[in-house]
């Protein structure tokens, strides 16, 4: 992993995804992002925005995440927004929208570090898409969770292990050890 070409991508830590299975994430991610930014590294946040007529609405009859406050980034991470390299709004599971692709290319990032919600969907899909685009990708196993519970989080990590390889799964202390001292 090339820490000098890496970006921290905080996936969908939004009010609507916070429950008893994910409420521990915002303070942990805020601390992680603070340390990452102190090392001069960029942070990008994503927001999932469902829209009328989306595949989620048409095929799953799922109409959540169409308006605030559900779509808002959680208050614990709100201080990151003004200084974030970008906030990417996305209409589906993956971080890789045209805006994200352009941002990565313009910044020259080769390595993506992912954390957030949900391990089994948006984090996983973004990790696999990064892998297939040739990026080095790392999923922070202790800084992501599933709003469907720990068993679903664990299942997402099993699939990630299979699809992006065991080196793609690390912990926050592993990542922070790679940063220059603060």
TrEMBL record:
<dbReference type="Pfam" id="PF00857">
    <property type="entry name" value="Isochorismatase"/>
</dbReference>
<feature type="domain" description="Isochorismatase-like">
    <location>
        <begin position="7"/>
        <end position="157"/>
    </location>
</feature>
<dbReference type="InterPro" id="IPR000868">
    <property type="entry name" value="Isochorismatase-like_dom"/>
</dbReference>
<dbReference type="InterPro" id="IPR050272">
    <property type="entry name" value="Isochorismatase-like_hydrls"/>
</dbReference>
<dbReference type="GO" id="GO:0016787">
    <property type="term" value="F:hydrolase activity"/>
</dbReference>
<protein>
    <submittedName>
        <fullName>Cysteine hydrolase</fullName>
    </submittedName>
</protein>
<keyword id="KW-0378">Hydrolase</keyword>
<dbReference type="InterPro" id="IPR036380">
    <property type="entry name" value="Isochorismatase-like_sf"/>
</dbReference>
């Amino acid at each position: 992993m090339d820490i000098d070409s890496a970006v921290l991508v905080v996936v969908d830590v939004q009010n609507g995804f916070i429950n008893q299975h994910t409420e521990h994430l915002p303070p942990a991610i805020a601390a992680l992002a603070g340390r990452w930014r102190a090392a001069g590294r960029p942070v990008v946040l994503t927001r999932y925005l469902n829209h009328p007529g989306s595949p989620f609405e048409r095929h799953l009859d799922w109409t959540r995440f169409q308006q605030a406050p559900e779509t808002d980034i959680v208050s614990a991470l709100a201080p990151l927004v003004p200084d974030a390299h970008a906030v990417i709004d996305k209409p589906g599971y993956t971080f890789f929208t045209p805006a994200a692709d352009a941002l990565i290319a313009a910044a020259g990032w080769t390595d993506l570090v992912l954390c957030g919600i949900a391990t089994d969907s948006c984090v996983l899909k973004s990790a696999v898409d990064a892998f297939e685009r040739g990026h080095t990708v790392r999923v922070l196993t202790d800084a992501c969770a599933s709003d469907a519970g720990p068993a679903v989080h664990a299942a997402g990590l099993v699939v990630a292990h299979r699809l992006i390889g065991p080196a793609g799964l690390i912990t926050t202390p592993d990542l922070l050890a790679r940063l220059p001292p603060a």
